[in-house]
Amino acid sequence: MKTQSIILALVALATSVIAEPSAPKVRLSADLAHPRIIAGKKMTTYLKVGLTGFDLEAAAKRAPVNVAIVIDKSGSMQGDKIKHAKEAAKQALDRLGPGDTVSVIAFSDKVEVVAPASSLNEREAVKSAIDRITANGSTGLFAGVSKGSEELRKNKQQNQVSRIILLSDGIANVGPSSPQDLGRLGTALSKEGITVTTLGLGLGYNEDLMTELALRSDGNHAFIKNSEELAVIFQREFGDILSVVAQRINVRIRCGDGIRPVRVLGRESDIRGQDVTVTMNQLYAKQEKYVLLEVEIPEGATETDATVADVQLTCINAVSKSEDVITTRAVARRVSDASLVAASANKSVLVDAAKLIGTEKEAIAVKLNDEGKHEEAMKAYTTAAAWCLEQGKLLQAPVLEKQGYDQAIRQGQFKEGGSEAITARKGWRDDYNVNNTQNDGLRKK
Amino acid sequence: MRLRSTLLFVFLVAVPLALMAWIGVMLLRQQQAQARNSWIAVIEEKLGAADTLLSQEMTRLESDLDSLLQDTALTDEELHELPRDQPFVRHAFLLNTRGKMIIPSSADAAMADVTAFLRRTESVWESGVRFGAAVAQAKQEPARVAQQQQETQNWQSQMNYSRNSSPSQATYAKKADVRPNVKVSGKTGIAEPVIAASGWHVWFYGNGPQMIFWQERADKQIAGVEIEMTALISLLVNRLSGADAPQARGLMQITSADGKMILHQWGAAAENDVLPPIAQRACSSPLGMWRLAYLPARNESPRVQRAPLIAGLGGAGLALVAVALLFLRESTRDIREARRRVSFVNQVSHELKTPLTNIRLYAEMAQQRMEELDDDTASRHLSVVEAETSRLSRLIHNVLTFGQQQRDQLTVHPRAASLDEVTQRVAGMWRPGLEAKGFTVECTLHAPNSFNFDPDAVEQIIGNLLSNVEKYAGSGRFVSIATQVNEKHARLTIEDHGPGIPARMRATVFAPFVRVRNDVTEGVSGTGIGLSISRNLAELHGGSLSLEDVAGGGSRFVLVLPIKQDVGGGPPTHLL
Q1: B244: which of A136, A334, B524, B553 lies 20 to 30 Å off by Cα?
Q2: ipTM value of the model?
């Protein structure tokens, strides 16, 4: 027995020695909220497919970066806003290296390529081009983003991180300008591997439009109240860009026989029969993203296993530049002891599910408020906050309690109306994006 | 005089100036219109160039989609994968030969994405449109769904307006002969086209137009994709903001058909510094739901070079004014010269008066003396001297009066007098001379009463009239002098049986220096001022001097004087 284990360990060591030059890979996990379920009963639970980015070592060669900085230079940006935006963009450029590409686009009523896609050898030229941006005119956001994507396409390379950073403070009024339209644009861009990070400055921008664009392209979003924060935000954004460990992520969850995939919480997904597909554009170092799938497990005899799902992750490893395929499986064991079911429940999965459900509940409240049904909205808000707080207590999860408190605060702000309500709505959209996509790179950690 | 010179000035200067200005304005306007037309032509060309860019992009996309669909196996899985990787594809579908949808199958209708797709495209299927070569053939059978047909160079299209809320639908099929035949070699080695036809379908859903690209396979199945419109717009926007897009000083826009939504705009002008569109056109098929428009910059409209025209016309105008001024100066100098001459003549005449009076006085005295001495010959000679002297004195008197008239200094000095007495006296003075020339002088006087008038002036008038009779009516050998009076007017008529005054001269005979006959050969002389002065004098009385027609030749001058009893002299009652 001992020798056997020693041999096994040696073999493992040997394989690991052999595999040593191979780059680290994304960690894939598949956990059920209830790994043990009551036998003889149909049960609904959550499957959490987690992806964790490996730590990017300093020595590791990161993926080349292709960034288009798209700056709103409409009239409302005049003054400190444009000044800070320019400073922030210039500082951020310093973090890029020789293999990277950057372009700068400014838009107002028209779109202007301030600096066409160029390698960072011409850093100073790009910086002085940024300096020449002056603000006036209206907001042709669509053309700005389009042009940004065009500049990215010029220098398309394999395994490159393609990113548009959109900074705007206003309501788009030239070109397609509805949140749906920009969301569709985000979807289309993400098919090309382009991610759009949107930075909403002040209280004047359309948070639905900006967040939809980020959400559909798996980009970051930040609600920036004060333009002085821009420098920090840009640094964080570039920190994210430079720490991409995997791209073109495709998570395929194949549910076992008889298992019914009900829905995916908070994410766009494609459910066809037993197959659930979720795509993400990228994963950053040490970032944890997850897909929460609600599943219905059919009844079965006690002490039998239900293979809930086979999970397959395919992605491009940013370090090894090769396609990684990682698989795992989630199995639920049917037991007859109900207390065992409760005791074995996976708290972290439940917390994550509760977080997303709480986010959904709040979205309903905001939607009611948008529709002018103020009282119903307040009621829904109370329900959501109370639910979050209750779940937080139940699961002993401070993060849920915080969510509940945040919702209560926003409810108060909505009640107050005016700029408070605007702030609350923008804060909510920001939270909504972060909770659903786990793209929290622009948050203080 | 003043009026006439003003009129003259107006005609000589102002009218040509106005005419020139008018011509200038018309010329400028014409030039402007011309410049504007050619400007608009250039702009329309630019819009055309932009449209061409769009068409190129659509053609490219079309062949991309053609080969994409061609390379895609028409299975559920493959068609489902398409939207996942293809930015331009939102959804894919497959219709069987009867136009019935087989992918997505009705079994999938509950899936969220399929449900959404079916909802978006509902009006397309409801409209009963058939894709495929049928669209191209619809020309032959317009009764089917086509209500309006459009034909462009490479496209046959068919617009059908469905009954439901969607405003319009349009299907476009590419003509088979312009398609590069995509061929696959089968086992037999015979090349066989896979695609029979392909094209676009446009309809409206949600906040804008939506498009389908369809491809009819050789087996008459129709594979199609719903286009991701924002991706398409993004593509077109990038093309239009690229370096090869037509540059504009103003603003070029691509907008929705109603112009309310701007898809993209580019150009040098700021958005708030442009005028309303001066040229626009619908984009070529299949993008007919969008328009291209050009909004000129505020200062862009072409400026005609006005300077040369204005300089030319201004120069001509100045020259005209200069000529007019020169002319004016010349004529005023002439007038001054003439005035000087008149005043010289006046002076001379005045100087002549004194010696003449003396000559007359002494001639009379000498005649009396001769009559006493019974020297008939000398007496006759002296009477000739006297007659000639009085003629000379009348002449001088006329000249002086005329001088006064010219200086607007002519006045009359009415006092109570009898018209008959004055007439009698003048007639008495003239009678011997006239009778000597064979005239019969008839005097019929009926105005004995005294009223206010200037006897000297009337004497001068009668003298002038009789002098004219003597000069011009010698052939008639008759003169009648008559006076009449009523309550308001006194009337003096002098009538002769001479040749009369021709009708054409009657209006001008009272103007100075006008003579009925200018021929000196007849031995008739005159200064041509007598009638002018006479009329003037009559008018100064408030009366008139006129010429009346006489039946059977001759002329009749009528002097009418108003009877004013309150001025100067007493009422006519104290006379007889």
Answers
A1: A136
A2: 0.88
Averaged confidence pLDDT in chain B:
80
Q: To the nearest whole angstrom, how far is the Cα of B143 from the nearest Cα of chain A?
A: 37
B80–A272 CB contact, under 8 Å: yes
pLDDT for the residue numbered B340: 87
Over range B429-442, report the average pLDDT.
Answer: 87
Contact B87 A174 (CB under 8 A): no
What string of DSSP letters covers B105-157?
-GGGTTSHHHHHHHHHHHHHHHTT---SHHHHHTTT-TTSS-SEEEE-SSEEE
Q: Which residues of B touch A143 (CB under 8 A)?
A: 237, 241, 264
Instruction: Show which residues on chain B lie within 8 Å of chain A, measured between beta carbons.
Output: 80, 84-88, 90, 108, 111-113, 206-208, 228-231, 233-235, 237-238, 241-242, 251, 261-267, 270-272
- pLDDT tens by residue, B119-146: 999 888 888 787 876 555 444 333 333 3
β-pairing verdict for A275-284 and A65-72:
unpaired
Instruction: Give the pLDDT confidence of B502-534 residue by residue, as tens digits.
Output: 877 777 888 877 766 655 444 455 677 888 888
Judged against a pLDDT cut of 60, whether residue B183 lies above it is answered with no
User: Residue A413 — very low, low, confident or very high, per pLDDT cuts 50/70/90?
Assistant: very high
Q: What is the pLDDT of residue B153?
A: 35
Task: Give the whole-angstrom CA distance, residue B261 versus residue B249.
Answer: 22
CATH number for the segment(s) A23-58+245-339: 2.60.40.3670
CA gyration radius, chain B: 54
**Closest Cα of chain B to A216: distance in Å?**
13
Cβ atoms of residues B223 and B215 within 8 Å = yes
SS3 at position B243 = coil
CATH no., domain B335-409: 1.10.287
Q: Count Cα neighbours of A395 within 13 Å in the Cβ-side half-sphere.
A: 24
Q: Are B207 and A277 an interchain contact pair (Cβ–Cβ within 8 Å)? A: no
CA-based nearest residue in chain B for residue A248:
B85
Homologous superfamily, domain B411-576: Histidine kinase-like ATPase, C-terminal domain (3.30.565.10)
Question: What is the per-residue pLDDT for B2?
Answer: 63
Domain map (residue ranges) of chain B: 53-240, 335-409, 411-576
Q: Domains of chain A: which residue ranges? A: 23-58+245-339, 65-242, 348-435
pLDDT at B521: 42
Find chain A residues with C-beta within 8 A of B274's C-beta: none
Q: Do A191 and B80 touch (CB under 8 A)?
A: no
Test the A interface: residue of B57, B76, B105, B241 with most A CBs within 10 Å: B241
With CA atoms as reference, the chain A residue closest to B227 would be: A188
Region of A113 please: left (phi>0), alpha (psi -120 to 50) or beta: beta
Report the 10 Å Cβ neighbour count for B123. 20
Looking at domain A65-242, its CATH architecture is: 3-Layer(aba) Sandwich (3.40)
| Whole-number pLDDT of residue B173 | 67
Cβ-based contacts of B241 with chain A (< 8 Å): 110-111, 143, 146-147
